[in-house]
Amino acid sequence: MTQSAIAARFGIPTTRAHRMIARAAKDGLVRVFVDAEVSVCISLEAELMRGYGLANCTVVPDLGETGPIPLRALGLAGASFLMGLLDRRAHEVIGVGHGRTMAAMVDMMPAYEAGGARFVSILGGLTRKFAANPYDVIHRLAEKTGAEAYLMPAPMFVNTPEDRRIMMAQAGLAEIMKTIEAASVCILGIGAVDMSGSVAHANIFDSGISVRDLRKQGARAEVLGQFLDSQGRSISTPYDGRVMAPDLESLRGREVYAVAGGAQKTAALKAALRSGLFTGLITDETTAGELVRNGGEDGRKKRKKTAGANDP
């Protein structure tokens, strides 16, 4: 990439980008070379940005991980992105989701100055059964950055919409929601709606309404406890009005980044990106290749239609 392109990507003046590159090379912090594998990642980034209408995309090389989710690769890339976000000092409040990928991102971060930014968890989920508890994610962020960090002290889903209205009227939760509204950038994971996906193991659903039932209704992705079909359209489920999180439509107009990857997340990522809610993506090379092969342009065209069959 040219220095101008690098400056534009990181939102800094070209002269500053030139100085930083020169200093890094002089100090031996970086080596400048051509690497075929990384070149492939850069090409995938460009294709994903074009195909899904993204303003920013990072594709990280595979690190040979054997698990269903490349947590190390995604964690390192997410941590690097978050540190860059803090360096820019353009956001006073940063909204953070939770889950295994978000936890890996925070784990990979070194101690880092927040520069006055605050963090807020934008989704409930404070239960003993919940994997990658949001308290752990937000608490570790506060420890590593010294920033103020706020947790939504509530389950992901409450019993009824009326329960949600009562809880949201409480002073503490109302203040958290105001903080969430002030978040100009959000970093989220994507939930896979299938029996092997991360959502299936979270133990957050009603006993009578399984993930299998949601999938039969057309759900392919879960974002902030809300469900999208294969073309990125919101669908109605028995959980409507019960999730302790902002409405997905309220995210439009903000910077919203997805950090997700792995074979079990590909279909969910396609659905989430086709929604048009996300402005940026951090993913791994293998997942990026799958997303490009079934591209976003086709999904955006389909999304304009008023009706259509869901993916099988």
How does this model look, in words?
By secondary structure, this protein is α/β, with parallel strands linked by helices. It has 2 domains: 1-33; 38-303, Rossmann fold. 41% of the residues lie in helices and 12% in strands. The chain has 12 helices and 10 strands. A 7-stranded parallel β-sheet has the order 1-10-9-5-2-3-4, sandwiched between helices. Strands 6-7-8 form a 3-stranded antiparallel β-sheet, covered by helices on one side. The N and C termini lie far apart (40 Å).
> Roughly how many Å is the radius of gyration?
19 Å
Output the CATH topology of the largest domain: Rossmann fold
Which CATH class of the largest domain applies here? Alpha Beta
Low-confidence stretches: 298-312
* CATH architecture name of the largest domain: 3-Layer(aba) Sandwich
The biggest beta sheet, please? Answer: 7 strands, parallel
Measure the end-to-end span: 40 Å
Question: What is the number of independent domains?
Answer: 2
Give the strand line-up of the largest sheet.
1-10-9-5-2-3-4
Strand-residue fraction? 5-15%
Topology:
Layout: H1 3-10, H2 14-26, H3 36-52, E1 56-60, H4 71-88, E2 93-96, H5 100-108, E3 118-121, H6 134-145, E4 149-150, H7 161-168, H8 171-182, E5 185-188, E6 191-192, H9 211-216, E7 221-223, E8 226-228, E9 255-259, H10 266-274, E10 280-284, H11 285-293, H12 296-303
Parallel strand pairs: 1-10, 2-3, 2-5, 3-4, 5-9, 9-10
Antiparallel strand pairs: 6-7, 7-8
Helix pairs in contact: 1-2, 3-11, 3-12, 4-5, 5-6, 10-12
